[in-house]
Amino acid sequence: MSNQSARRGARRVQQAGWCGRAWLCLVGAVLAGLPGWVRAEGPDVLEVRWVIHSLPFVHAEQGRSGSPKGFLDRMLHELLIPNLPGLLHSVDQVPIPRRNQALQSDARACSPGMIVSDERRAFTTFSVPVIRMLPSGAFGTRRVFGGLGKFISPEGNLDLERVITTGAAHVAVADGRSYGQVVDALLVRLRGRGNLTFISGEGTTEKLARMIRAGHADLVLGLVYEADLVSREAGLEGVDLEFWPITEQERLHQLAIGCHQGTQGAAVIARINALFAHAEMRRQAQAFYDALLRPQDLKRLRALMPPEPASGPGRQRP
Question: What domain of life (predicted)?
Answer without folding.
Answer: Bacteria
